[in-house]
Amino acid sequence: MLLVKLIRVSQHARNVQSILIKFGEPKNCDWCKTPSAFKGSKCFQCKSAEEKYGKPGRCEGCKNNAYFDKGLEAKKKVDNKTLCLLCTLKYKKELHRSGEVLKTKFSRK
């Protein structure tokens, strides 16, 4: 059993090493500052959001240029704040922990 795990780990390490050789070390995304995928200077989330919603604006939470205007419905879910994806997830997690209920179309009545 231990031998199988070691083989899997070493095979995974070789795969990671080959990816690092091919693409180089990951860099932080230019907009959201999270470690980015290997291609380009933007992470996948920011790249796809830019294609859908245009250039980003300033996030109220982290002050990075990572907020994409997705419309009024999306802003209502976070009390009309302009939050990037990471800050939105953090905000909703804090609401959930504090026991407040998010008023979305999925919440129970």
Report the order of strands and helices: HHHH
Indicate the radius of gyration in whole angstroms. 19 Å
Tell how many strands the DSSP assignment holds.
Answer: 0
Please summarize the sheet with the most strands.
Answer: none
Mean pLDDT: 78
Q: Uncertain segments of ≥5 residues (pLDDT<50)?
A: 1-6
Helix- and strand-based class?
mainly alpha
Distance between the termini: 50 Å
Query: How much strand?
Result: under 5%
Shape: globular
Number of helices: 4
Q: What portion of residues is helical?
A: 40-55%
Quick structural gist:
This protein has helices at residues 2-23, 44-53, 72-76, 85-98. The protein is an all-alpha fold and 109 residues long.
Q: What would you note in describing this structure?
A:
- The chain is mainly α and 109 residues long.
- Helix content is 47%, strand content 0%.
- The relative contact order is 0.10.
